[in-house]
């Protein structure tokens, strides 16, 4: 496939249905593509990402794993701005995401696809798609996914900015902006007198070594059930 | 110009524009080169490029000479003249004899005074939108040949793609920057809340209230305050100890700030 295929134009190709973008930005990907679920994230600097939507619990789990591990198809797309295709994760090798890949079979995930969300030449985020059964996306489905990914750029940016500006509404708490993670970073930053970057690394390392999701560790810190000054070393 | 060298020059001009679509380039430089190449290739004596700006005015963006003469003629033509007609219709406008173009008296007078006897205006358009015009001026009477008009249009068409792509890119960059700023702010504010909660033993909501009050009292944005706390240029103790002083001594009027 050439670059022209990826950059495309603003108008949807013939045969691809229009979609009324409502509140659920993940919905069209699940409705219009042969996949089991989707998540959309918007990229921050420093290799971070903000999740805008997830279609189901498994999509949310995969999203959290990629965030916690710092590896996965999303990060490959974030680096390359090109789609990532894994039609059969159990049979393929994943040199870019060995740890993430090893966890997939137990979750029942057989195929993964990730598409860049582009506006002009600028990469704004990634759409992550998974399927419980293996199998590639055919040419039509791929074209459809690329087109939808391009068209979700503006709604995704608007949603991410709206959520970021929202201080205390119930919706703000519901959105997976990982506020507790950043709050926990602030607490560890004080507890250990380290930089915020170091604090995040320490939280990640602790989550990894205890086999718990980063968000759960962060909740413990925020609830004051876990104080990093009490940890050995 | 010989036929072979004309072909060569035309091809070189296309290659240059094609390169600009993938490389980092300055669009104004590109337009200057385009208009001067086009002028040479079709054998006229001067050329200028008008583009619609954000306010809906046609502006001179590039010309083969910076001399006031050409620029003034162009501006007049953009007010009432072949360039404006070209822009309005999206079609080429040919004026083989300016002396006969009485319908634009101010433009006609100025053009003749500067020695321009013929004008050819080429639309910059893509999919029904005209974003400007490329305007070619000759010192002798006569229209462009069909071949030259066609070559000029082809160059104008690729220039249009280049301009539009640069605009999309600039717009996308702007959006990306605004997005990053909003996301960074949120992260910094949450980190600052956590830090304040840790030091003071308060809830996240109480911590936020403290941060917001301090920021308002000192006319700081939350972003700037959170940044100062997380890079330790402001100690967290400052949030509580100086509040009382500020409240008693400040007569500052309320001001609207960016967050």
Automatic annotation (TrEMBL), chain B:
ANTAR domain boundaries: 169-230
Pfam families per the record? ANTAR, GAF_2
Source species, domain of life: Bacteria
The alphabetical list of record keywords is:
Kinase, Transcription, Transcription regulation, Transferase
Q: MF terms per GO, please?
A: kinase activity; RNA binding
Q: Does the keyword Transferase apply?
A: yes
Under the heading InterPro entries, the entry gives: ANTAR, CheY-like_superfamily, GAF, GAF-like_dom_sf, GAF_ANTAR, WH-like_DNA-bd_sf
Tell me the protein's name: GAF domain-containing protein
Q: Which organism is it from?
A: Microbacterium azadirachtae
């Amino acid at each position: 496939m050439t670059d022209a295929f990826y950059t495309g134009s603003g108008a949807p190709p013939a045969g691809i249905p229009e979609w009324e973008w409502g509140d659920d930005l993940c919905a069209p990907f699940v409705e219009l593509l042969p996949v089991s679920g989707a998540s959309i994230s918007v990229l921050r600097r420093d290799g971070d990402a903000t999740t805008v939507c997830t279609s189901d619990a498994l999509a949310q789990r995969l999203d959290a794993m990629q965030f916690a591990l710092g590896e996965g198809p999303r990060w490959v797309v974030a680096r390359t701005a090109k789609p990532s295709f894994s039609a059969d994760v159990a049979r393929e090798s994943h040199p870019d995401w060995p740890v993430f890949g090893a966890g997939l079979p137990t979750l029942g995930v057989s195929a993964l696809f990730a598409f860049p969300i582009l506006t002009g030449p600028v990469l704004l985020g990634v759409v992550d798609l998974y399927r419980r059964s293996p199998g590639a996306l055919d040419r039509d489905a791929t074209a459809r996914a690329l087109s939808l990914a391009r068209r979700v750029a503006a709604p995704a940016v608007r949603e991410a900015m709206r959520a970021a500006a929202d201080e205390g509404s119930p919706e703000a708490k519901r959105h997976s902006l990982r506020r507790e993670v950043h709050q926990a970073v602030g607490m560890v930053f004080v507890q250990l007198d380290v930089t915020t970057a170091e604090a995040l690394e320490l939280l990640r390392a602790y989550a990894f070594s205890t086999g718990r999701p980063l968000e759960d560790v962060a909740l413990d810190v925020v609830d004051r059930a876990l104080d990093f000054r009490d940890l050995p070393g | 110009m010989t036929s072979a060298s004309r072909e060569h020059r035309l091809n070189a001009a296309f290659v240059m524009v094609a390169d600009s679509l993938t490389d980092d380039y300055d669009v104004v430089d590109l337009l200057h080169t385009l208009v001067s190449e086009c002028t040479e290739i079709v054998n006229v004596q001067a050329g200028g490029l008008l583009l619609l700006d954000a306010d809906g005015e046609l502006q001179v963006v590039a010309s083969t000479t910076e001399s006031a003469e050409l620029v003034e003629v162009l501006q007049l033509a953009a007010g009432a003249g072949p360039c404006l007609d070209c822009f309005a219709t999206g079609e080429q406008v040919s004026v083989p004899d300016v002396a006969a173009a009485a319908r634009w008296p101010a433009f006609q007078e100025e053009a003749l005074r500067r020695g321009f006897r013929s004008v050819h205006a080429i639309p910059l358009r893509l999919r029904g939108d005209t974003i400007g015009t490329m305007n070619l001026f000759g010192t002798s009477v006569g229209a462009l040949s069909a071949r030259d008009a066609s070559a000029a249009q082809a160059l104008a068409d690729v220039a249009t793609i280049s301009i539009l792509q640069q605009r999309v890119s600039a717009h996308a960059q702007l959006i990306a920057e605004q997005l990053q700023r909003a996301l960074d702010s949120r992260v910094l504010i949450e980190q600052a809340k956590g830090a304040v909660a840790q030091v003071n033993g308060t809830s996240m909501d109480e911590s936020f209230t403290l941060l917001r009050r301090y920021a308002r009292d000192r006319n700081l944005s939350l972003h700037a305050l959170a940044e100062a706390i997380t890079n330790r240029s402001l100690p967290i103790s400052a949030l509580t100890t100086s509040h009382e002083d500020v409240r008693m001594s400040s007569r500052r009027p309320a001001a609207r700030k960016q967050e």
